[in-house]
């Protein structure tokens, strides 16, 4: 029997390419603008109708930013904090997620929803009490303090994705291992974790990006040792358009590298479990 | 295997506990080392910090054998940070310079030390109007440091293009705004209306220059000011509602606004960073009664519980000294708090410096009221309702006047 | 099973979940409770009072903020979910450059909101690229003031927010899409269904759990929108977050700020509960 090709199929078959292209362009435009401004000759931008496609280039802004040396400490701090946050988040959230995934369904649902309770409060409301607590613990300007603050924001999210990941791993696997006489802990480490690895990778990417990006807690918890987003904002306020565009561009580069290389791990199957829960 | 993992987890826990202890400990040896450091917080641009680090700090460091650790903190953020540190009983900043319009919260939250006993430190050559701004309830909390005032930046090319003179009074201002709007189809003059601290300053100028008192808000001068603003509104730039202390710089740089009052650092960014030669400044315009500009600037304070208070007091004195004040003039183009500090300003800064000094002649400080927040709210509320919502001027001003009166009564009864 | 036995049997699990629970309890639940308590305290006497709530509810700004927050959330959610769904459907196909498209889609996620806000002002500002674009196409003559308030400002903020957030929606929906077994599509194919019919009667229902999760996740953040509003629209278009921020920052009133934050919490909770009730909780397969 020949299947008729209907209109909606025709439309979707032809339309998807242009839509995809337009979407990709739109996604990239703001980043393009930042990069472009950072390479632009000032007078091409400082006019009522700034150029969108610049014809003249200058490396001056980038030179200034890098020779002043002001960019490396914040870069290092952001990088280290993001990486440490990611590692610790996984260490805390993964085992917990495993336990939650194995809970009876109703309890599990309640636990997962309550994890989100913590995200429902505007940052302005809790940033101060948290900052006070942290300062009491002598964590001002420290890497540890910032990591802990970032964990607050990221743990619920990480736990949620990982619960989904663990849910897709059938219980029979562990049960088979247990029958064979291995301890619970070994079964966990040797059998479950490797299978969950891609899901863990996805979580790691999200957490890393969120931490690299984070602004509010950094504002409260740093005095002299700024993170890269804070430093960028300093230039947005005090510096010129070109300095801040360059900083913003630098801020985006690791993001693009990380997402580009790790996007093959983003096989969305790992998020599928999260969604089913 | 299980034993191994258990041991591993135990070790990890111990390490992290140790880590926290180490982070917090060492306080004994730390406090001696701490006395050798003076942590100074200011809100400055990069070029300004350069001058501080190269010209202002070293002589003090050498004289007293201390290391000055500079902290870049903006006025609004400073309140938050001091608050957090104070609540945690862990004040780590020794001395601050703060925008004189953001002082009340610091005093209200008990974040700064009472400096009344050091009143004699204030040099007798100080410009008298700069002292009261640091006084609250009869006590001195802040020392004068540098006066500042907004000046009117204008786009010379555009004024020349349409053959316009710089406005010196309200009628001329209205004319200029109208001309730009007619010729270009869109307003090019900004009166700050961002419903925040910046529009409060702007309204202060307008009300006072019409002979009114902004803390009364429904007197004749205030009514005149709002009436004028309503008349001017259709010819203003739409960016007026996004104009704070920072955005006007960009608007001027992009030639999208041709006249706006802003703080002098604008010139530094425009000239040094952007190389714009066509933006100049003058002292601004007068109202029907007089010319009035809010006296801004910065003052020096010492946070409550500062670890190195003695050194901070010395630094305070140092900043107010003739030698330092003259350097601030020459190197930064900052007008001095002392009448005896002279300096030669850099060539490119001269026109702006003149504008600042001219404007300072008409500068009036804001009153230091405990219920300042309510005044601010009232002024911006009136601005919103009258200008954005088109409500009747008299009734709205009466309403907000009552609001201020209530706040005043509540404050006085405490 | 008695308590002791329970703990003994599950000591590994308890050890694994404890860090997470303690951390969240100590560092999130506790501060939230602190702030909520603050909202019920009188500014000067610290006695229990509803004065803070009365004060802010009476203000026009708060009413505007309330309206704007809800309107913004609905506009944003509609735009994000639609765009996310369309792009997720596209990414489900196989075509050259799929990997490239996928990595491009993720780029916005790593840019700090504040920075993206600045980039958006270059686009939507009075003299921004968007106006210039419209002028070139002769759609408008004079630049449009997108920030002047009203629907177009809400639209502008929504689009700016959408840029940053759609990647997450795409990933979540794509996850759901890819978990729909191919047999289902084959079956509907054999039945002679059109692409549109397949979409409406097969894909959508099976996708419901994904959509629900994405919607809830996004709603929580959309109600709390903050930096973008400040940067793009200023205070003339308040939302609850900026209102709470101003109360604390500019007016030094931590109490009314806390009250505003608590109200926001309530709104979000009400939304989620009602949505779940209306949309049904778990998937029906």
UniProtKB/TrEMBL annotation, chain A:
Record key words, sorted: Cell membrane, Membrane, Sugar transport, Transmembrane, Transmembrane helix, Transport
Q: How does it sit in the membrane?
A: Multi-pass membrane protein
Q: Name one GO biological process term.
A: transmembrane transport
InterPro entries, sorted: BP-dep_ABC_trans_perm, MetI-like, MetI-like_sf
Source organism superkingdom = Bacteria
Q: List residues of the ABC transmembrane type-1 domain.
A: 75-263
Q: Where are the transmembrane segments?
A: 20-41, 79-100, 107-131, 143-166, 187-209, 244-262
Places the protein is found? Cell membrane
**One cellular-component annotation, GO:** plasma membrane
Identify this protein by name: Binding-protein-dependent transport systems inner membrane component
Q: Which organism is it from?
A: Thermoanaerobacter pseudethanolicus (strain ATCC 33223 / 39E)
């Amino acid at each position: 029997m020949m299947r008729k090709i209907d209109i909606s199929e025709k439309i979707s078959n032809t339309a998807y390419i242009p839509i995809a292209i337009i979407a990709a362009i739109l996604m990239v435009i703001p980043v393009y603008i930042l990069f472009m401004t950072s390479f632009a000759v000032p007078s091409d931008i400082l006019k009522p109708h700034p150029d969108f496609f610049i014809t003249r280039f200058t490396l001056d802004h980038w030179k200034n930013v890098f020779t002043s040396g002001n960019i490396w400490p914040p870069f290092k701090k952001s990088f280290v904090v993001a990486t440490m946050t990611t590692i610790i988040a996984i260490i805390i959230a993964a085992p917990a997620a495993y336990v939650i995934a194995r809970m009876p369904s109703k309890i599990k649902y309640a636990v997962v929803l309550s994890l989100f309770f913590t995200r429902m409060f505007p940052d302005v409301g809790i940033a101060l009490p948290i900052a006070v607590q942290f300062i009491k613990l002598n964590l001002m300007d420290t890497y540890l303090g910032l990591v802990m603050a970032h964990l607050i924001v990221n743990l619920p999210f990480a736990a949620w994705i990982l619960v989904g990941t663990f849910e897709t791993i059938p219980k029979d696997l562990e049960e088979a291992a247990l029958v064979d006489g291995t301890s619970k802990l070994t079964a966990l480490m040797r059998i479950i974790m490797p299978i969950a690895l891609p899901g863990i990778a996805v979580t790691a990417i999200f957490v890393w990006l969120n931490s690299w990006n984070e602004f509010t807690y950094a504002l409260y918890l740093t005095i002299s040792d700024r993170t890269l987003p804070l430093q960028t904002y300093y230039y947005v306020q005090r510096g010129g358009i070109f300095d801040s565009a360059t900083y913003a561009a630098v801020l985006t580069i690791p993001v693009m590298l990380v997402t580009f290389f790790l996007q093959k791990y983003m096989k969305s199957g790992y998020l599928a479990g999260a969604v089913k829960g | 295997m299980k034993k191994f993992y258990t041991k591993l987890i135990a070790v990890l826990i111990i390490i992290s506990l140790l880590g926290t202890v180490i982070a917090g400990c060492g306080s004994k040896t730390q406090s001696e080392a701490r006395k050798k450091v003076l942590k100074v917080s200011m809100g400055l641009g990069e070029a300004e910090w350069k001058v501080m680090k190269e010209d202002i700090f070293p002589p003090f460091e050498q004289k007293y054998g201390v290391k000055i650790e500079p902290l870049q903190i903006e006025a609004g953020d400073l309140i938050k940070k001091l608050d957090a540190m104070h609540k945690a009983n862990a004040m780590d900043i020794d001395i601050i310079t703060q925008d004189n319009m953001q002082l009340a919260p610091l005093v209200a939250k008990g974040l700064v030390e009472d400096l009344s006993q050091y009143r004699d430190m204030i040099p007798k050559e100080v410009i008298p109007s700069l002292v009261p701004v640091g006084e609250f309830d009869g006590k001195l909390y802040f020392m004068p440091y540098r006066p500042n005032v907004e000046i009117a930046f204008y786009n010379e090319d555009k004024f020349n293009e349409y053959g316009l003179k710089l406005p010196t009074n309200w009628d001329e201002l209205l004319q200029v705004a109208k001309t730009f709007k007619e010729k270009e189809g869109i307003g090019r003059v900004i009166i700050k209306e961002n419903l925040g601290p910046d529009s409060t300053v702007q309204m202060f100028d307008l009300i006072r220059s019409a002979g009114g008192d902004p803390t009364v808000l429904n007197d004749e001068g205030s009514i005149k000011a709002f009436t004028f603003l309503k008349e001017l509104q259709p010819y203003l730039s739409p960016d007026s509602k996004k104009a704070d202390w920072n955005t006007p710089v960009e608007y001027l740089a992009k030639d999208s606004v041709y006249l706006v009052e802003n703080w002098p650092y604008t010139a530094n960014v425009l000239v040094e960073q952007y190389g714009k030669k066509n933006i100049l400044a003058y002292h601004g315009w007068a109202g029907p009664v007089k010319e009035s500009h809010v006296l801004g600037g910065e003052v020096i304070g010492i946070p409550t519980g500062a670890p190195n208070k003695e050194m901070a007091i010395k630094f305070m004195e140092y900043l107010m000294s003739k030698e330092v004040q003259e350097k601030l003039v020459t190197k930064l183009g900052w007008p001095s708090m002392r009448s005896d500090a002279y300096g030669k300003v850099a060539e490119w800064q001269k026109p702006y410096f003149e504008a600042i000094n001219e404007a300072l002649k008409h500068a009036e400080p804001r009153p230091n009221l405990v219920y300042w927040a309510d005044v601010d709210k009232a002024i911006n509320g009136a601005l919103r309702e009258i200008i954005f919502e088109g409500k009747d001027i008299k009734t709205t001003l009466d309403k907000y006047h009552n609001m201020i009166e209530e706040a005043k009564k509540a404050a006085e009864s405490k | 099973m008695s308590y002791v036995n329970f703990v003994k049997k599950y000591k590994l699990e308890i050890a694994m979940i404890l860090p997470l629970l303690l951390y969240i309890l100590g560092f999130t639940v506790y501060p939230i409770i602190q702030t909520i308590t603050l909202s019920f305290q009188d500014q000067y006497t610290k006695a229990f009072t509803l004065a803070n709530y009365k004060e802010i509810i009476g203000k026009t700004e708060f009413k505007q903020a309330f309206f704007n927050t809800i309107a913004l959330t609905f506009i944003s959610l509609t735009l994000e979910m639609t765009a996310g769904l369309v792009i997720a459907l596209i990414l489900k196909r196989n075509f050259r450059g799929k990997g490239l498209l996928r990595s491009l889609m993720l780029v916005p996620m790593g840019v700090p909101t504040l920075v993206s806000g600045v980039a958006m002002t270059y686009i939507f500002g009075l003299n921004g690229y968007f106006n210039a674009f419209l002028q070139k196409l002769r759609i408008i003559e004079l630049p449009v003031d997108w920030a002047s308030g009203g629907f177009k400002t809400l639209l502008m903020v929504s689009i700016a927010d959408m840029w940053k957030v759609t990647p997450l929606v795409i990933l979540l929906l794509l996850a759901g899409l890819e978990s729909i077994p191919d047999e289902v599509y084959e079956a509907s194919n054999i039945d002679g269904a059109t692409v549109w019919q397949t979409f409406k009667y097969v894909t959508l229902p099976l996708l419901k759990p994904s959509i629900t999760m994405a919607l809830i996740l996004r709603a929580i953040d959309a109600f709390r929108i903050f930096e973008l509003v400040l940067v793009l629209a200023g205070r003339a278009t308040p939302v609850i977050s900026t209102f709470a921020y101003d109360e604390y920052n500019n007016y030094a009133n931590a109490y009314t700020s806390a009250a505003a934050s608590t109200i926001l919490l309530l709104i979000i909770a009400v939304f989620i509960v009602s949505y779940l009730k209306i949309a049904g909780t778990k998937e029906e397969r």
